[in-house]
Amino acid sequence: MNSILLPSRGRVTISEVASAAGVSKASVSRYIGGDRQLLAEATAERIAQTIERLGFRPNQMARGLKRGRTRLIGMLVADILNPYSVAVMHGVETACQRHGYTLVVCNTNRDDEQECRHLAALQSYNVEGLIVNTLGHHAGELKDLQNRLPLVLVDRQMEGFEADLVGLDNTQAVRQAIDHLQQRGYRDLLLVSEPLDGTSSRQERAQAFRTQIAANPSLKGRLLETNGDFTAKLKTFLTEPGPGPKAVFAANGMAALTSTASLRELGCRLFEDIGLIALDDLDWYPLVGNGGITALAQPTEAIGITALEYLLARLNGSRSAAQRMAFPAELRIRGSTQPRIS
Amino acid sequence: MNSILLPSRGRVTISEVASAAGVSKASVSRYIGGDRQLLAEATAERIAQTIERLGFRPNQMARGLKRGRTRLIGMLVADILNPYSVAVMHGVETACQRHGYTLVVCNTNRDDEQECRHLAALQSYNVEGLIVNTLGHHAGELKDLQNRLPLVLVDRQMEGFEADLVGLDNTQAVRQAIDHLQQRGYRDLLLVSEPLDGTSSRQERAQAFRTQIAANPSLKGRLLETNGDFTAKLKTFLTEPGPGPKAVFAANGMAALTSTASLRELGCRLFEDIGLIALDDLDWYPLVGNGGITALAQPTEAIGITALEYLLARLNGSRSAAQRMAFPAELRIRGSTQPRIS
DNA sequence: CTGTTAGCGCCTTCAG
DNA sequence: CTGAAGGCGCTAACAG
Hints:
Chain A has 3 domains: about 15-60, Orthogonal Bundle (434 Repressor (Amino-terminal Domain)); about 70-170 and about 300-325, Rossmann fold (3-Layer(aba) Sandwich); about 170-300 and about 330-335, Rossmann fold, CATH 3.40.50.2300. Chain A is elongated. The N and C termini of chain A lie far apart (about 75 Å). In chain A, the strands form 2 sheets. Chain A has a 6-stranded parallel β-sheet, sandwiched between helices. By secondary structure, the first copy, chain A, is an alpha/beta fold. Chain A contains 12 helices and 12 strands. The first copy, chain A, has helices spanning about 15-20, 25-30, 40-55, 60-65, 85-100, 110-125, 140-145, 170-185, 200-215, 230-240, 255-265, 300-315; strands spanning about 70-75, 100-105, 130, 150-155, 165-170, 190-195, 220-225, 245-250, 275-280, 295, 325, 330. In chain A, helix 9 (about 200-215) links the parallel strand 6 (about 190-195) and strand 7 (about 220-225). Chains A and B meet through helix 4, helix 5, strand 2, helix 6 and helix 7 of A and helix 4, helix 5, strand 2, helix 6 and helix 7 of B. Chain A binds a DNA duplex through helix 2 and helix 4.
């Protein structure tokens, strides 16, 4: 009954299969390597049965060691608890599957030191390429790594670091948000963002917001980060006089969560007292307030798939200049931005 | 400028370090293997500098091949898009980190065939142990695997399959839910579950619900799965006469999402017309309806950590009978179960 | 078509 | 304390 708990040490190897089948290791290797055409029908059949009988599984580590190809792709995720990251990861995984690669994921946990450690770990396991959702520090390490491995960045780029990048067209997304809000009659906007810690996508969104607000005289806009006494500052925004109806623009899913929680806490009627639009579209947006939260959805699956495809291109020898893919966001209108009279 | 895009083939190996430092491969090996005590101070120092200078990283694959230890743990996740899975995974990862292991995650995507494929893949990469959130089919495969590797199950067990298991105390969680609802004055309950497809945790929750309702004459209870015309059936529940105030008990996060969406669609006032309690506690629960959704939180982090610890025990040679850890859920009361007069 | 021979990068006796 | 030699499981030329 407890035989179950006795992992019999020593897996069956190619040698055992070879001798059991009465052929050479090379033949078995050819069989499992897909060179079945080079084998006589009978030999192949005999090997097949022996493999089946013994439950042989080729050791990918050993294969990788010899061939220099591990069929492993590494992915570094800044925060696995962030639905965006998981969604992109899902896309990468789908594409990996499609191309016969296995994905190894490491979670940085927003920690610089772990980013370093995991980068080293991934490398030491001979991943063939890397998809990185970086924190934005460690330019040195990454540059160094890029000399050894193809590498593509997701969502976040780094200053002075040339690499393929796939993410969102932040400027356009911000434009869509502002246009939509303005069209719906909002005039006094607040961009809520997680702390501007250098993360490029956050910076880009904030910068685009500032620029576009500055260029639009009929709108007023402020920026607020979700740290510190966020709720208090949000209250200030709500109460101070402005040019017209107020709306919050949450720069990502976390900001949307925080903003909504604080608005509730402040006793706002959602969304009669204030409008809300959020970047990212999380599955609970439709459930909040009166009619749900209007969203700008990122094509996360496509972002993941494209990231892997860029990587594959490099693996196949592409030497072109760094590519950039900036996907457009998709506006999904819900109750939080109902038309209103200004 | 484009040197960045030229992954120089061929990483630096132990041999190069050895000759560059003027020592033997063995010495370098001893250095990186932690046998620094066996080396002369001067030799160690010289090796250290050479390694640094050349940017040498030991190839874990090769080490694994030789030593039989890869320091790799595999995890099979049924659905990476499920926040529960991700949360547990986060716990596993934390523990891995703590013990010097690297986690390789594969996502089954709720697909039987992929479960098989990934199981094979993981094994072929010489993971030392496996943490499995299985779909519950493939008892054969898993049993077979367990003969080679330590393996611990998370959340879901399999009939006739003896293995360490860590998850929730479903019976107690259901009891907590029912007790709470009853205490708050609800009398007519509806358990909403994702399809009962054999997933053990779903079955257990459904079974516990039936049993406890049957044993409690003052309560009426029905079970509804989220497939088919769920909303229509939910409407039936809402309109048909019952013994008193009605409440929905969502058996997990997905069920909570679906239920809430349907309740809104049906025009229910949340949560004056109906009560709601949900298993799992997702970050958006506080934002919904009047005061948020009451939850039974699972200690996901602890579940993940415990799973890895069980695995480590096996890796360290433990041969005890299969262990089971069933964590209690934690009740977090919110507005969806306000006191009411029956 | 098939077997033999070298290693891939590293660790591990076993002698110095 | 250190080096030389052999081999982990597998593949890749070469010869047959």
